[in-house]
Amino acid sequence: MTAPVASTAPPPSAASGSFLSKLEIDARMLGMLAALAAIWIGFDLLSGGVFLTPRNLWNLSVQTASVAVMATGMVLVIVTRNIDLSVGAILGVVGMIIGVAQVQWLPAYLGLEHPLTAPLAVVLAMVIGGSIGLFQGWLIAYLGIPSFIVTLGGLLVWRGAAWWVTTGQTVAPMDTRFKAFGGGVEGALGATTTWVIAAIACGLIIIALGFSRRRRLRFGFPVRPGWADAVIAALACGIVLAAAAIANAYPLPAGTARRWAEANGLTWPEGGLFIPHGVALPVLIAILVGLVMTFIATRRRFGRYVFAIGGNPEAAELSGINTRWTLMKVFGLMGLLCGISACISTARLNAATNAAGSLDELYVIASAVIGGTSLAGGVGTIAGAMLGALVMQSLQSGMVLLGVDTPLQNIVVGAVLVLAVWVDSLYRRRIK
Amino acid sequence: MPTNGTTPLVEMRNISIAFGGIKAVDGVSVDLRPGEVVGLLGHNGAGKSTLIKILSGAYKPDAGEIYVNGEHADIATPRDAKRYGIETIYQTLALADNIDAAGNIFLGREVLTPYGTLDDATMEAETRKVMARLNPHFRRFKEPVKALSGGQRQSVAIARAIYFNARVLIMDEPTAALGPAETQQVADLVLQLKKEGIGIFLISHDIHDVFGLADRVSVMKNGKLVGSASVQDVTQDEVLGMIILGKCPPGATPGPGAS
Predict the structure, then answer these.
(1) In terms of CATH architecture, what is B1-85+167-259?
(2) How far apart are CA B136 and CA A261, in angstroms?
(3) pTM of structure
(4) Which residue, among A93, A64, A62, A61, has the nearest Cα to A356 in the 3D structure?
(5) Cβ of B149 under 8 Å from any chain A Cβ?
(6) Is this complex scored with an ipTM above 0.90?
(7) Can you give the pLDDT at residue B251?
(8) Would the CB atoms of B98 and A378 count as touching at under 8 Å?
(9) In which band, very low, low, confident or very high, does the pLDDT at B2 lie, cut at 50, 70 and 90?
(10) What's chain A's average pLDDT?
(11) Cross-chain Cβ contact B95/A310 below 8 Å
(12) Where are the alpha helices (DSSP H) in A219-322?
């Protein structure tokens, strides 16, 4: 099981090939990063240096979190050649239910501001979202109703159900601990925690790279040259540390900082205190969701089946894969992620409204597609979709900074979506 | 018939299946012994592919029984068929185009690490081994099979079928998309597998493909079995007559479809 294969393997690292091909970095992903950089620098120039400030980037990260979380699930849905139009409506109904749970149901048993309120609300959100997703998945996989129709119906049904929970009344305010899920001052994790998380992330990156290298060497497979692995590790760690530094460069507003200082027994000096925000909880959640979803999509049997179904449904069936159950689980996962996003957006708004998540389905689908998920199925990455969400949100907040009217914002975002897919199709054709 | 006393590896008895009132397979019986190659012949639409899809678990028959090693076998899904050691190389190859060779070979039967994750390294190592035997020039282990040539894709499909110690191999038009050199490779492989005692159903609409390799032929027409014969007992022209006219020659055992 070890030695004999070495003879058939090609010589380690073919001598030819460019710098990039040695790094084995996806050219597509690089293109997206370049587009993002262009958008950021462009808006920074147009706004007179307001866009690339720690404050704006921090807000951008928090605003992206909710859609980014759902986009990771949409990748799997689209990879299986399906679509989910109901994610915004599921977010809406779940948000309403956990809002009412925090304001009316749970306080009746636990009292107001009980420490268990927030965790229970999150679990409830995931259970309800997951159940709705599984139910829709069952209709699609076992009854054979097209996903477009089931989730189009779902869009209307769950939006209507969201209204029904309180007959349209807005529920507010949320539990204080729960509010941390939305970012803001409660959800800012502070400088020390941020550095600790960044350090752990860097450590994991290095361990993961070393582990995969050792494994390939043990089987005698070709590996990247050592310097290429080092460059990748340095780049990845550099990005993590830079993000942490930016999050820590954004101080709490003076009034909040003062309250925080007094609560922690510090004296308030004349010039004020520089208390950094640090990374926001919803952003951390989104990153963790992205990592877990990437793990599921690439390292787990389930993920392999999802992609096999997308590549050739008949072949997947003939290989003995339980394609229906797999499909049902994909939609269940999508619903669960809607539940997580419902927590983030409800907490961020500090209120449950029955309009929450309106049009989110379109942003989520657009993020996945801009991120390289093919509507023909079988192709897509979690990281790409999250980057797509960041591109969309960057465009939108950049235009807000420039004072562009909402209708024009929509026109630009719509045009960019079409343009991105066109450019992507050109790229794919050239690759072939 | 050269019945050398052994129990058939596989026996399909009186198999029938209908789609929307049309009997695609109507009361067909075929059998296969260890180390034997049986050619299944007939025009396009004669029901050959449907018959073998029943054996491979893709379709469930309306009537009839399947016996494996003389024992009644219940084959409802492709997974069941694989459990009985029945592997299939489909005419369409049935590969997931977006996944690499190892992913396709182990699809549905992935090797897992102790942590429950995909053991890609082991699967790639095994793939390199089996491909070294089938197609020594194969190098593109990391690319989706979409990027491969017809012959390479065929080798991946064959590797998937033989890697898991198949006892019965079904080859549906295995050479339809191949050039002469690759066709010869497949023929060599068939003879090698036959030597290892594997029973092979060779499905084709071209009798020249089959005659050189098969020990017996069974001919289908309009979903019915015209007849079965040992290749020594019939001429190619007689088999052609069976395929086209449904006329059973004296050297063959007539089936219900013989006119």
Answers:
(1) 3-Layer(aba) Sandwich (3.40)
(2) 71
(3) 0.88
(4) A93
(5) no
(6) no
(7) 79
(8) yes
(9) very low
(10) 88
(11) no
(12) 226-248, 254-263, 281-299, 301-311, 313-318
Helix (H) or strand (E) holding B23: strand B22-32
Note the pLDDT tens digit of each residue in A25-46.
Answer: 677 788 888 989 999 999 999 9
The total number of residues shown for chain A amounts to: 432
CB neighbour list of residue B175: distance below 8 Å, 6 or more residues apart: B182, B183, B186, B187, B204, B209
Determine whether the interchain pair B121/A221 forms a contact, defined as Cβ–Cβ distance below 8 Å: yes
In tens, the pLDDT along B114-135 reads 988 999 889 999 999 988 888 8
Q: Which amino acid is at B259?
A: S
Residue A15's pLDDT band (boundaries 50, 70, 90)? very low
A218 — contact with chain B (CB < 8 Å)? Answer: yes
Q: What percent of chain A has pLDDT over 70?
A: 94
Measured CA to CA, the distance from residue A96 to residue A10 in angstroms comes to: 58
Q: With an 8 Å Cβ cutoff, is B129 touching chain A?
A: yes
Chain B window 43-82: which residues touch A at a Cβ cutoff of 8 Å? 56-58, 77-79, 82
Is some CB atom of chain A closer than 8 A to the CB atom of B230? no
Q: Do residues A301 and A325 touch, judged by C-beta distance below 8 A?
A: no
Domain residue extents for chain B: 1-85+167-259, 94-165
Cα nearest neighbour of A217 on chain B: B121
Query: In the structure, what pLDDT confidence band is assigned to residue A14 with cuts at 50, 70 and 90?
Result: very low
Q: What is d(CA B212, CA B27) in angstroms, rounded to the nearest whole number?
A: 28
